Amino acid sequence: MDAQFYPTPPDLAARAWGKFKNREFTRVLEPSAGDGALADANPRERDYYRRNIPIDCCELDISKHPMLRAKDYDVVGVDFMQFSSGSIYSHVILNPPFANGAAHVLKAWDLVWDAEIVAIINAETVRNRCSKERQMLGNLIDQFGEVEFIADAFMVPDAERKTAVEVALVYLRKEANVAVDIVGDLLSDLNDDAETGAGLAGGYEEVHALALPNSFVENTVRAFKAAVRTMREAVFGEARAHYYATLLGDTMAVRNGDGGASKPDTSVKWVQGEIAKRYSLLKDRAWAGILRSTNVTSRLSSSAQQRVEKEFADIKKLEFTVPNIYGFLCGLVENRAAMQLEMACDVFDLITRYHSDNTVFYKGWKSNDRHRTAGMKIKTTRFVLPGHGTHSYQHGLNYESTRLLADFDKVFAMLDGKIEPEVSLVQTFSAHFADLKHGARVSSSYFDVRYYPGAGTIHFFSTNRKLVDRLNRLVGRHRQWLPPEGAKVSDAFWLSFDSAEKLDKELRTEINNAAGRSYWDHPLHNICSGDEDRKARAMEAIDDAATVVLERHGINVDFQIDAQQPEQLRLAA
Ligand SMILES: C[S@@+](CC[C@H](N)C(=O)[O-])C[C@H]1O[C@@H](n2cnc3c(N)ncnc32)[C@H](O)[C@@H]1O
Question: pTM higher than 0.70, yes or no?
Fold first, then answer.
């Protein structure tokens, strides 16, 4: 466990929250949140309706982020010492690592604009003002706050980690200088009273386009910072405009009782709330730009992109900084293997789902276990995808069909160890659509294709059967129809696997015989069903039929109980 990780015990946490004098919690920051023990003690007295207080967290240990998010806190940063967006917080509450208590509290002080700060730090840090940092903290406490010392606060029975250290509960109040920050210098503004319309707009210059010499990430962060800065100025400007407008009094309509009373707001609370709202929209835009940048998602299949976008709700709350962006990109790279597997499974399912003729079956490796199941393979010769009809006046496939072909291009290139195919299916369909519509067979890198616009089917003839085989093995292993990589399985198993295409006709006859006349409860129908129970029953029935066929050909179907190493195989599964 991290030597600096000491979750605040509940009593001490409640006492810390009790120190705040302003009980209107607009937005709170917990800059070193750990598992959220201190944040959890929040008094839920945000307002009259007792709605939850919005709490943002930073935490250096990213393994704690999922827990914080699960507790409904927004994770906005990793290293608090690099955090820079503090003006929106009305309160900061912290129990930083004891070794750096003074630095963390000083950072919080610098960061906020108008807020109360409560910190749990080592009593020594306050009592012994031996360093410049400690002196600065001491001066702040003397001028703007107070301190209470508590012995044995971490020795109570419900302390998750005990320590005999005496703590100081520090309270600080930093107040915005409203007159200067928001209202501005009244006199200097009022001197300009002879302005013309042209003069009023005279100070405005169009923003010059940003030069983008460096990398996309650095430039986006630069643009984001510029956007935040000007947004902040705009909100301040609005507050000032409201203020001056009130100096002029109500409009004639309001005075006559015809219009609603104007309610100008120049308060710190309004400014903080407005900046927080607009800041979160700017972050959303900025993160969306990174996500959509071609380098990140272009190689993902459409559903893998959708999955990444789902995580976006959490990502967009992080402060938009260069380290956070690279952290996010590294996470994507680390997950690449898992994402590639998911992409392969998506394409496999697309091919096997809608057309049971695309598939051949084999006796699954796990069949000796409790759940007997057949394995599925895509035919290496040809498969057909329905649902891609076009009208005679169209000059290309529909958007959804093109997206599906793009997914095929990405997955088969990946299986071929390439970034993209030399001749993609998407290019093939756009360049030769007229020929394809008139029945031509056209080649792309991995498939020859034929298109039947009336029936809406595309026929794929594999030109590199090894790649289809690779896809079959990758998905088969993942779904445990095949043994794990490197496990020894009897030759009979691989014989059954390799004979699947040859025995397909015989197996289908056997399945039909066993199923009888029922269409709706037929295994070859149910196998394409979205209902998992039906699918499992179908797999079992197909597995039974495979047993009959294999035995007829003298292939020993007990192969799964491998005589050589049954225990290891079971463990590996
Ligand atoms: C004493 S624990 C307190 C945890 C939490 N605040 C609580 O009261 O339960 C300190 C926490 O600060 C985190 N931490 C240390 N340095 C940090 C930094 N620079 N930025 C953000 N978190 C940091 C540690 O990972 C640890 O979880």
Answer: no
Task: Spell out a b/e string for 523-554, using b for 16 or more CB atoms within 10 Å of the CB, else e.
Answer: bbebbeeeeeebbebbbbbbbbbbbebbeeee
User: 60 CA to middle of ligand 1, Å?
Assistant: 7
**Spatial CA neighbour of 573 closest among 454, 487, 459, 469:** 487
**Average predicted confidence (pLDDT) for the chain:** 84
SS3 track for 238-301:
HHHHHHHHHHHCCCHHHHCCCCCCCCCCCCHHHHHHHHHHHHHHHHHHHHHHHHHCHHHHCCCC
More confident residue, 9 or 26: 9
Measuring from atom 27 of ligand 1, which residue has the nearest CA?
Answer: 34
Average of per-residue pLDDT across 560-570: 46
Q: Write down the CATH number for the domain with range 10-175.
A: 3.40.50.150
Q: Is the CB of 491 under 6 A from ligand 1?
A: no
pLDDT tier for residue 568 given thresholds of 50, 70 and 90? very low
60 lines ligand 1 (CB under 6 A): yes
Report the 10 Å Cβ neighbour count for 391. Answer: 7
> With a 6 A CB cut-off, is 6 part of the ligand 1 pocket?
yes
Annotated domain spans of the chain: 10-175, 186-192+215-255+262-334
Higher pLDDT, 121 or 217: 121
In the prediction, which pLDDT does 10 show? 95
Under the banding of pLDDT at 50, 70 and 90, the label for residue 563 is very low
| Nearest atom of ligand 1 to the alpha carbon of 96 | 10
Find out whether the beta carbon of 95 lies less than 6 Å from any atom of ligand 1. yes
Q: Sign of dihedral through CA atoms 230, 236, 240, 243?
A: positive
Position 200 pLDDT exceeds 80: no
Instruction: Tell whether ligand 1 has an atom less than 6 A from the beta carbon of residue 34.
Output: yes
- Does 79 contact ligand 1 (Cβ within 6 A)? yes
**Top-confidence residue, 136 or 214:** 136
DSSP strand pairing (145-150 vs 167-174) = antiparallel
DSSP per-residue letters across 197-211: HHHHHTT--PPPPPP
309-333: burial string, b at 16+ Cβ within 10 Å, e else: eeebeebbbbbbbeebbeebeeeee
